[in-house]
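Predict structure. Chain length: 340.
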Amino acid sequence: MTAPNVSGKLVAMRKKSDRCRVVLVATPGVPLFELAGAAEIFGIDRSDLTPDWYDFELVGTSEETTVGFGMRVPDGRGLDALKDADTIIVPACANIHDGAPAALLEALVAEHARGARIVSLCSGAFVLAEAGLLDGRRATTHWMHAEDLARLYPNVTVDPGVLYVHDDVWSSAGSAAAIDLSLELVRRDFGAAIANEVARRVVIPPHRDGGQSQYIRYRPPTAAAKDDDVEHWARRHLAEVTVTAMARYAGISVRSLNRQFRSRANLSPQEWLRREKLQTTQELLESTDLTVETIALRVGLGTAANLRTHFAVEYGVPPGAYRRTFSSHSASATASADTP
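Prediction complete.
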């Protein structure tokens, strides 16, 4: 809860049990963006908004941790700082295939058992997964690394399409999504009014529509496109193509086509075709000022209403919102994209 004080500033009404000590752990080579983003949200003194703002501490995992662009972070209290932390944040790791320091993994497990709130940003999810803290839980990471996280840690349910996940522990998607998650923690701790004010100060929306899926460029690793490939043919005939027509073009049965797609792309032909239609929709929204009705006919989704439904389910935003964010063409058509 929040209330204005006599000077008109926002003051949080907090319980003694609320989390207030935040420790950000710098691992060797951590990219600067995620490290700086968390420091910006939690580390700046915002006692003008609430006298109970976070106690923030940045620590390294070694005596002097070198992070992105050769900058160095003194260890401060080192991993001992985790012992009295209410929230522990692990930002992106330098390389998802490099193991995290064993001492950090042990400390994360111990402090999670104690009840500390554990947070990963971007590829920091690999550190939490290595510590076993994501086993049996839903999590996310940068969409470019989602398949690797799922493959390396099969006990983790990886959701590549969202901005952040809370399943006992917290994890965010890539890069800027770390700020979305950080603001959500502020919102949980101090209320929407203060979170919104922090968002204004860092000049970002308090909450972004949709999820990470709208930023993904997906092309399954099928055979290289040639004029006689069924995939290449289907992409050129999206308006009328069906799975049966694809099988007929390839000269095989629908069952054989299904087996080929499953082995090459881990998708059924129907799933592949749906993704191709939606990705082509993305490309047309970005590069043309065609109406949604015209795009729906061109990609074989029939009606504008059908396209809007499928697009919103897949990407979490309607076509018009997507076009306003990503269009490199005329802005004049954005208003028509969401018009019934």
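Summary: The first strand starts at residue 2 and ends at 4.
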